[in-house]
Amino acid sequence: xxxxxxxxxxxxxxxxxxxxxxxxxxxxxxxxxxxxxxxxxxxxxxxxxxxxxxxxxxxxxxxxxxxxxxxxxxxxxxxxxxxxxxxxxxxxxxxxxxxxxxxxxxxxxxxxxxxxxxxxxxxxxxxxxxxxxxxxxxxxxxxxxxxxxxxxxxxxxxxxxxxxxxxxxxxxxxxxxxxxxxxxxxxxxxxxxxxxxxxxxxxxxxxxxxxxxxxxxxxxxxxxxxxxxxxxxxxxxxxxxxxxxxxxxxxxxxxxxxxxxxxxxxxxxxxxxxxxxxxxxxxxxxxxxxxxxxxxxxxxxxxxxxxxxxxxxxxxxxxxxxxxxxxxxxxxxxxxxxxxxxxxxxxxxxxxxxxxxxxxxxxxxxxxxxxxxxxxxxxxxxxxxxxxxxxxxxxxxxxxxxxxxxxxxxxxxxxxxxxxxxxxxxxxxxxxxxxxxxxxxxxxxxxxxxxxxxxxxxxxxxxxxxxxxxxxxxxxxxxxxxxxxxxxxxxxxxxxxxxxxxxxxxxx
Length: 508
Prior knowledge:
CATH class of the largest domain: Alpha Beta
Structural class: alpha/beta
Mean pLDDT: 95
Largest sheet: 7 strands, mixed
Number of domains: 3
Strand content: 15-25%
Number of strands: 23
Radius of gyration: 25 Å
Low-confidence stretches: none
Helix content: 25-40%
Oligomer: single chain
């Protein structure tokens, strides 16, 4: 199979929008440049971490080579954040029309959803964003872009397309891919992953989803809102098991309202192909017996780091099945080679990869000592409502022996939430006991991913709840709930002794 055919297989359907995307991120007529005699930095992988490393280093005057074997932009642009959020936006629009009656808006003929049009919109928007990650943009920055599989041949050389690139420093940013769990019958059926679900052009009448983490829950809810009958195989601990239990319970209630059906719990799940390409999901345990046939199956369980065929052994880079091993400065066992992003991080988020890449630039090129452990990394699951989190959960604090005080403001008590009919959520902040120092927070709200940044900013800069309480927030907004949590902390400072002193002062 030629490289052009491989790109077309990844970017289905091969319409004008996917052709535009390919022209930017994997141009068919691209010819690799003649390598420089030596590079300050060679970057393997052009996902978020690799692109930030390459652009940042080149902007500071370094001679940089960037290697990508598939599509520039990596998962985020092509099969991750960008297409998924476009799809989720379409599903939210469908749900808004469906629920408009509560606001006095009535649709006489009901809601009609065109899945093909929504997918075309996604492909169009993805193509419009792709110039930011394009071969042209990075060559215009003075970077030598090589399309092909890069492999270390020794501790100071990478080979790609028959050429050898000598480097002073290198970065491994090859990312991760969807992993297949050990389920009986999985190898006998055709299934979707996050890398292929965005190639659908017809809405599955019945969709099975294995995996109740962020990707599984986001897609299950979205497709249910589109009109699919969705069966989500949850874990023993329910959906989104890593999140605050109150938070995941709210999302579960919303998903059930949208029509998602839960199957428990995947331990004895079996799969079989029936009626051509349809898929049978069944479990025959006494407690959780079920038997369902679906048209499409999404497997959203686990990720595997791309460590194969990189020549890591030849470069003296230690790795395991969990990825490349790095120290706190993101340095591998070869002191001249660093790693960033999903290949080495438990935080597999675009924004985490971005800031890890910034650490690599400082440490690899400027003798910095920046530490990844110093990063305050928030994250968000884009269900409806969203769940956003930063810092420690209550259980983590308890396991680490940290005593905490917790303050919660439910959205049912926030004026803007009441007026918008979005009262199912909360803002919850954990502080070190007896102080206003924030050590963690969870927000459940329609725009929780935007709201969490205020708390992340406070944590990053050592600002406590007293500072948030003293900051004016516009009224009415949902973000006002964050200030109200801070007000709740302030009220704890009014101890009986202090209140008694104030009363005496007033009386005097």
